[in-house]
């Protein structure tokens, strides 16, 4: 599948989009101390300075190097240090050792960012290279940086969480639900039949979102909102973490090995449940969507509730036409909200929703040519698809066809679930 | 999905089927020394005596205990020792420690088998319990024992393989292809469209095979035979195990960690390739289907060949009406054969074929009630489906709808691949 | 240090000694089922059939191969399979995989033993090789087989222990203490000063026991008997396993990682303590020496008791002149005894006593030449010395200068402790 | 052994000593970027900011808390964060996670240091507490901080080493040997006999250095200088890392597992050997003492050279009366020097010398009372003694009786060896 690109671009408008995304990265880093950029508390939670450098390396490697013949790398050694996993363009520095590097300093990395930005700007404005050849990789780079904006917040949350000092990223008021909110949910029915999902090639999409293709769906129902903390607490209080029959075999092994008895970041203090947020420790709000659960926990909850998870096709078929609005990174809560309204009108944002679908290629899918083909395709094993974006996803990054994916035991993302059932 | 059962059974015909399967287990064990029953060279490769006892425990636990009120267990401690993974009916003895148990002796286990068989016989013939209530669990038990017949041979092969003395299970001549065999293959084309797959409930099937359901297939082609050793050697010689771009990320990690450079059981001696078989070491026959490869290797081969693996729906849609004949356990080669004919007329047997499909429930699927629901359902994560049966599968055990499943890094099964492509 | 050898040997008397030891091995194996020879429940607990073959290999490798030019190995592949750790004479088969080998069968291994014995016999009687050149290696081989007699019993105990069926090796009555036994102990005082320890070269000793050398000891006291189960229970009941201040740092790490709260083989049932013995489960006898404790536990107990462990020099200086009598393998209890008398008259047997001394070479020590130098010398790191022999040591195997050694976390040997203090 | 303390102290002179040591810590940190304080590239190599805080915590915990009743901790949570391993005064934060903590910031830790210093100053000068009661713990704290000065440099070296950018700590010229230096060494002979070693209680010593005690030494010889890089290269070129017979069993296992083929920090580039130093990569200087080798490598080298390592008693008996001068941290080379003179006149500094002695208590030794007893005593298992101090040891920190100790596989300290032999 050739990647879809928007037509009719001029250098200035591209540059403006590029700048906007780069500035948002800077905004996200504003509250940090230099030390906060360095640490990596798990192989999954990369250091902030690595994210800053890697997103910049992406433009250097895939835009400047191929399209700007006179470009001279800022530091040739960065090509090794800040390559994440592109094996076909070099030897990536080991992921789990990213937190061992005190150098380059944060200041140097900001310098690297500026240097590369200036060269991208020059490339876009000097007319020596046709924009239509630069744009595909540049556009991916912009979306790539947005992906990492989300990862920066999820990784920072984890890196702060392991610290007994419980650092606060930003003091954000949580959005209060109206006191008399009716917190129940509706079942929405969908007819199914021979439907189509997947990206049709109009506008940007990652290579794993297409091609648009037919599939058959039996009639089904979806809950009008994700499962809440209150509902998940009922599962916990009913012994959900201790009853083997709710769990997939691999899930049960994980529960016992890790000693899970609540979502990640939850802590029980004097009988009350609290969780760590990017604004510090807070009492659990029962009306918010539950988050920081693994696929295994989402699946076990659904089995306990005598329902199931939706497939990604059911999800997309139901919500493709919904407006993309909701609680995203730009809302600046950095935490799911207790929603007043619910309903399929607000399916995007708040929490990524685990689906029942393993992450595999769509029929007829072809990855991008060259190293960028490694972006998505090589992870198509042992991962599950999540849909809808979260409270730390940039709003302009999400699409109805967007396929996020993680291993079924991961919990550090803002991941939740929505119930489904057959008709 | 209620499990399908055959109608109109009388006790004698059931008993005859039961006996036939039990006798075949005994036949398979005939060549063994007592010591051969004891060892377990990996967590996957259970001891033979464990298989003998576990398949017997299955009848005790799911047939005699519920349906024969007067039945007194042979030894109550066996319920712990020989439970494989049924967490809801007790605490299974740890899988990786099965090879630590010298007792009960092989002789005692044969006694256990006889004791349970006599009680099953009594239950079937004394008319105190209606056969239609006994039959569903008994039928599963019979198919369960057939599954373990296959596992006994695959596990024995592994347990012999680690031994530098290279023990021979049975001296079997390999089936010779006719010298002038044309070893090329054809592409068979299938129209796809709105098709149905899955078991329709007529006759026996495992609970994961149904319900029969609609799905949409784009037109596709399948190779008329599995990939051969000769073809796989070409991949190896082309550097397939050393070129990252052919591999899924998890596959590449596995290749490097395990040092894979050939299928399991292959060894290079003075530049020539040999493999260990149940009849000892042999020179690799290039015309045979390649086997003992993981999903990762199957997938990498397909990418190298610029093709792909079929989905399980494509496979079943193509071959559902083929006659089930081929090289099975009863053929007594215990090794894939260099086939003279090929073609879709002989798709069953020889090697299990990895598909591109993760093992997930079919739409509308419901596992069996109670502990037998653990049989298949709880493994629906991180595994891939294989189709078609192998040279150590009992012929009467396989069906067009049969879904075998293993983790993508497993190689000790007789697993191979067939190429597919879109039209 | 040249190994000491007895002078004036004739072939017949040597053969008689050789036969006597070989027959005792056979006696020890008598109660076993074939399956009992095969299993290995931990890397430490080798299969019985491996012990039988390895002790035979030792004679083949170090006696027949060098001294019997016409000797043809029973099976050349055994040189790899049954080499324990002699890296300079080949590549030993991995220790932790000894339990993966079903072949050679037990019967074949008995055949191997007989074959090698006949050739040793021929070598001793046919006068073609001078006995004084054969004898040093043969004598080591005899003592080596005695070492393995002890290991066979300790390993068998462990391999039986992991089996929920609790197999019994031999039904042995425990020796009853006289009812009115006074179970207290005395402190024996030793002057120390400039003393000598180590083997003087008269008669057989391992190469690690010499040379005899001077050292200075401050005056000290030793308990007249080892610590008993009753005393160790007091430590346990006083929270000994939960109080960090009694433990070496590595010991505390081990206690927490392994979850230790009692010696190996102990189990609490309805508030009472039992232990697994070679005669099955028994209630703990408080008057017996405590056994199956690690160095860490011995050391922690001594610190709790406000005493210390003796050094090996203190031990040998105190007990070198004591008669070697006590509860050994020949007593056929295979378990420490509740002793009626105590006192330094019975310091040998019952339990190996952990000392405070790391296992290092004596001043001026030289290992044997060649591969036999690997016998003891290469283990002189990270191990502690034990003294005195145990209830499964052959009586004729022990000497006052005998240095046994194990890693400080090992518990599967019959290891206990004796208290010491300064004056 | 009661810890020895210097008599006749007044508050001002104590304060001056305290300040001097604290200032040297600051000097050592001067070249660092903030990021350099944060990282921890192995569990052994703690972050610089952790060292700064921990050495301060030591004074807070063992001086201010017990002796300054009005003292209010800077931040009570630091008692958990900066406790290294004192289990009896709280729960230490896990060692391997020290590099996960971005907070407190470096600036806050400098604030913590100042706060505690001011309170120590006040305590020393305000006469409310008798100095003789404060001094013992304060004196240990001063020596403790010196120990960490050495660790800061060794840990920083490791943390810089893993970084492909090869950061330079300080550009230090290496001391050049005079061109015509005779680099051979002499054998110094010592009579031995009944000698005494250990600290006699006059002046400061750690609790593991006493009591002074008698022991017997056979006559022996020591090399007049440590083994050089040139000599060690000869061992390497003779296949030392590949020949099993030179190695202890645990050492050989380590060599193969870790793939060692040279000392830590060595790298071969185009056939030439280089090593990473605190001043960057440099060509190996053959005349310098070899360093960054494990005990296993030191022991293997000695065996290859047909010599042995000295015991710590031999070392101390030989060098107790030598003047303490040489290449220490104050010399500011931070690297061993190619020495012009050699001889027993300069045995201190340059490299810690592995001895043949396991780290065990001296006869009659008693650890300090209370938590400070954990300082040294609980590590007396599985470690080997090193003597003499290194090029990063503060000169005033070393003593003839000083016993350093590390596990035999550790290489990140400046550790080398000196040969010994019997007479």
Give the count of helical stretches of chain A: 9
Class by SSE composition of chain A: alpha+beta
Q: How many β-strands of chain A, per DSSP?
A: 12
Mean pLDDT of chain A: 93
Biggest sheet of chain A, open or closed, and with what strands and sense?
Answer: 4 strands, mixed
Q: Which assembly state applies to the chains in this document?
A: homotetramer
Q: What is the topology, as strand order, of the major beta sheet of chain A? A: 10-9-8-11
Helical coverage of chain A, percent range: 25-40%
- Shape-level CATH architecture of the largest domain in chain A: Alpha-Beta Complex
**CATH C-level name of the largest domain in chain A:** Alpha Beta
Topology summary:
Four copies of one chain form a homotetramer.
Chain A: H1 11-29, H2 48-67, H3 78-81, H4 106-125, H5 131-161, E1 187-190, E2 193-197, E3 213-217, E4 220-223, H6 229-237, H7 249-258, E5 266-269, E6 272-277, E7 280-283, H8 295-304, H9 312-319, E8 352-358, E9 384-387, E10 404-406, E11 415-416, E12 420-422
Parallel strand pairs in A: 8-11
Antiparallel strand pairs in A: 1-4, 2-3, 4-12, 5-6, 6-7, 8-9, 9-10
Helix pairs in contact in A: 1-4, 1-5, 2-4, 2-5
């Amino acid at each position: 599948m050739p990647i879809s690109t928007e037509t009719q671009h001029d250098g200035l408008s591209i540059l403006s989009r590029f700048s906007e995304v780069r500035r948002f990265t800077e905004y996200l880093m504003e509250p940090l101390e230099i030390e906060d950029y360095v640490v990596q508390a798990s192989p999954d939670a990369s250091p902030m300075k690595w994210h800053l450098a890697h997103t910049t390396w992406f433009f250097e490697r895939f835009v400047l190097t191929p399209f700007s013949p006179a470009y001279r790398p800022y530091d040739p050694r960065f090509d090794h240090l800040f390559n994440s996993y592109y094996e076909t363009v070099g030897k990536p520095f080991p992921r789990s050792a990213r937190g061992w590097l005190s150098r380059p300093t944060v200041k140097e990395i900001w310098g690297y960012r500026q240097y590369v930005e200036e060269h991208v700007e020059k490339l876009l404005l000097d007319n020596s290279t046709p924009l239509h050849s630069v744009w595909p990789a540049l556009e991916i780079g912009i979306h790539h940086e947005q992906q990492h904006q989300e990862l920066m917040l999820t990784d920072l949350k984890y890196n702060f969480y392991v610290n007994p000092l419980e650092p606060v990223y930003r003091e954000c008021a949580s959005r209060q639900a109206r006191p008399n909110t009716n917190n129940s949910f509706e079942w929405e029915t969908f007819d199914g039949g021979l439907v189509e999902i997947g990206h049709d090639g109009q506008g940007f999409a990652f290579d794993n979102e297409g091609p648009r293709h037919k599939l058959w769906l039996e009639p089904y129902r979806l809950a009008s909102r994700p499962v809440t903390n209150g509902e998940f607490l009922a599962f916990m209080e009913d012994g959900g973490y201790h009853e083997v029959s709710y769990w997939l075999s691999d899930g049960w092994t994980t529960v016992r090995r890790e000693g899970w008895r609540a979502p990640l970041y939850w802590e029980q203090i004097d009988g009350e449940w609290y969780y760590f947020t990017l604004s510090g420790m807070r009492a659990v709000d029962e009306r918010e969507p539950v988050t920081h659960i693994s696929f295994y926990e989402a699946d076990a909850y659904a089995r306990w509730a005598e329902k199931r998870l939706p497939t990604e096709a059911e999800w997309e078929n139901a919500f493709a036409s919904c407006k993309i609005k909701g609680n995203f990174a730009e809302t600046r809560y950095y935490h799911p909200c207790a929603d007043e309204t619910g309903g399929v009108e607000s399916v995007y944002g708040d929490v990524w929703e685990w689906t029942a679908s393993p992450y595999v290629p769509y029929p007829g899918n072809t990855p991008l040519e060259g190293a960028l083909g490694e972006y998505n395709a090589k992870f198509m094993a042992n991962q599950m698809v999540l849909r809808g974006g979260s409270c730390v996803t940039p709003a302009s990054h999400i699409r109805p066809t967007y396929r996020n994916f993680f291993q079924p035991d991961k919990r550090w993302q803002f991941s939740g679930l929505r119930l489904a059932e057959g008709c």
